[in-house]
């Protein structure tokens, strides 16, 4: 139904208008939540994951950037997701880049975006989450800096974005890998990332329950800079990593009329590159820290590839746009079949099998 009817209708509209339309529905739909949860949640002990000191009903989460302001935080569990990442949240509200800033590359199953951290700001996100009530699933909060804050004062911004949100966060992600805020990726270099992580870990201690702090990495590192960053972040107290953000590369979309648009590429053309980065992070940490694998996941096979490369948890964003609201159920059911095929007792048993 999504592919035959809803997607063609949504795709006739500007991508950002379609996004706001769907978010408007999700904000208002609590009545449908109970029914949706019964239809879409896959409840099976083999899918449960214990990671970051948290319990996940299934490993498939919603990636950052879709519910940036926590407007529909309660809807994602009802759609069968095992967790949701809100954000990126900046400390002060900001509009982001001028539109158009989001492009569909439909034949390539990809998106290019240069949203530039459009955020309602930490105080409004706090109010949204307080109003929304319990989400029923672990909630991650992804934070960034305001565009006009120089990198030398970035740590203050990450702290300020996190502080009001501590009571609502099960984990935090420091986003230092968006390609759409000038200079941001310099903060993921080994010489810079440690100070940010240390500052964030301090704030995440909050009211006594220390929230784990993860670092979200770009897929575009050169040489062994990735391993150096991972080591520096780990030494400063990072509890895990999110691999990866969008790429500035254009491999696989050369023929698209939108290939020359500035921004980060996501979806199918990013998949293999993101998996390779994930595998390197797993190896660089000897599999000791949980990694959230993200980039080009649309099917159970894609998610399983991430898990076998070292992901304890997996996120989708672009896949949801192309596959529709049943994607979490489809992936979770497919994962059970893949585990059975390979004689594995659980998702946890598959983590990192292809990275050793
Ligand atoms: C329109 C759009 C906005 C995004 N915004 C954010 C963001 O605010 N923060 C962030 O960490 N990642 C953001 N991302 C990146 C996604 O979370 C994800 O890392 C990336 O898209 C790769 O996954 P995918 O191929 O499943 O989309 C955004 C992606 C898209 C397509």
How would you summarize the topology of this molecule?
Blueprint: H1 2-11, H2 15-27, H3 30-40, E1 49-51, E2 54-56, E3 60-62, H4 75-78, E4 83-89, E5 102-105, E6 110-113, H5 122-132, E7 139-143, H6 154-162, E8 171-175, H7 190-204, E9 213-217, H8 225-235, E10 240-243, E11 264-267, H9 271-284, E12 291-294, H10 300-309, E13 313-316, H11 318-323, H12 327-341, H13 347-350
Parallel strand pairs: 3-4, 3-13, 4-7, 7-8, 8-9, 9-10, 10-12, 12-13
Antiparallel strand pairs: 1-2, 5-6, 6-11
Helix pairs in contact: 6-7, 7-8, 8-9, 9-10, 10-12
The structure holds flavin mononucleotide.
Flavin mononucleotide (FMN) binds at residues 63-65, 68, 87-88, 102, 111, 113, 115, 142, 175, 178, 216, 245-246, 266-267, 270, 294-297, 316-319.
Give a description of the structure.
With 356 residues, the chain is of the alpha/beta class. The chain has one domain: Alpha-Beta Barrel (TIM Barrel), CATH 3.20.20. Helix content is 37%, strand content 15%. The chain has helices spanning 2-11, 15-27, 30-40, 75-78, 122-132, 154-162, 190-204, 225-235, 271-284, 300-309, 318-323, 327-341, 347-350; strands at 49-51, 54-56, 60-62, 83-89, 102-105, 110-113, 139-143, 171-175, 213-217, 240-243, 264-267, 291-294, 313-316. The chain has an eight-stranded parallel barrel, surrounded by six helices. A three-stranded antiparallel beta sheet has the order 5-6-11, with no helix packed on it. A two-stranded antiparallel sheet has the order 1-2. β1 (49-51) and β2 form a beta hairpin. The longest helix is centred in the middle third of the chain and has 15 residues, at 190-204. It binds flavin mononucleotide. Flavin mononucleotide (FMN) binds at residues 63-65, 68, 87-88, 102, 111, 113, 115, 142, 175, 178, 216, 245-246, 266-267, 270, 294-297, 316-319.
